[in-house]
Design a protein that fits this description.
alpha/beta
Length: 150
C-alpha cells in the first residue's frame, strides 16, 4: 500500500483540513502534494506557511521538529504545509525555490516573506508578524506596506 497522497483516498485532504482548522492538537505540519498546496493557497482564508524541503536534505530534517513546535503554537491561526521540491518541481520553479529548506509565508494567496536555510528564531518572528498582518492593508508584507518600502 502506498503512502502517496494521490493513493490515500481523501486522507491527505482530511489531514490538511484538520491542520487548517486547528485539528485536535492545535495544528501540525501536513505533507502536501503540489495540487494540494495550490488548492490551500487559493483558499485565502488564513495565512499559510509552506516548508519547501527534500528527503535528501539534512537541514530540512533538522527543521521538521522546529516547524512542528511552531505549528502547535500558531496552528490555530496559520496553516502549515510541507512540500517536497522533487515531487512538486513546477510549484518550486514558479516560486523560485533555489535551495532547501526554504519556508515561504503567504497571506491572501500572496507571498509575504520567506526564510532560507535553518533559521528557527527568524521563523518565530516571521510567524508573529504574519499573524499580525491579518486585516492589514492590501499589499502589506513582512517587510512593511508598499508605501513603507518606497
Amino acid at each position: 500500500m502506498s503512502d502517496r497522497p494521490e493513493d490515500v483516498a481523501g486522507g491527505e485532504a482530511a489531514a490538511i483540513g484538520a491542520a487548517r482548522d486547528g485539528g485536535a492538537s492545535g495544528g501540525g505540519v501536513v505533507d502536501a502534494s503540489e495540487e494540494e498546496a495550490r488548492r490551500e493557497l487559493a483558499r485565502r482564508q488564513r495565512p499559510v506557511v509552506v516548508d519547501f524541503h527534500a528527503t535528501w536534505c539534512g537541514p530540512c530534517r533538522w527543521l521538521e521538529p522546529v516547524l512542528e513546535e511552531l505549528s502547535g503554537e500558531f496552528g490555530d491561526s496559520v496553516t502549515f504545509l510541507k512540500v517536497d521540491v522533487d515531487e512538486a518541481p513546477a510549484l518550486a520553479g514558479e516560486l523560485r525555490i533555489a535551495s532547501v529548506p526554504t519556508v515561504v509565508f503567504f497571506r491572501d494567496g500572496e507571498e509575504v516573506g520567506r526564510s532560507l536555510g535553518l533559521e528557527p528564531a527568524r521563523l518565530r518572528v516571521m510567524l508573529e508578524e504574519v499573524t499580525e498582518l491579518r486585516g492589514a492593508p492590501e499589499g502589506a508584507t513582512l517587510h512593511g506596506s508598499p508605501e513603507e518600502r518606497e
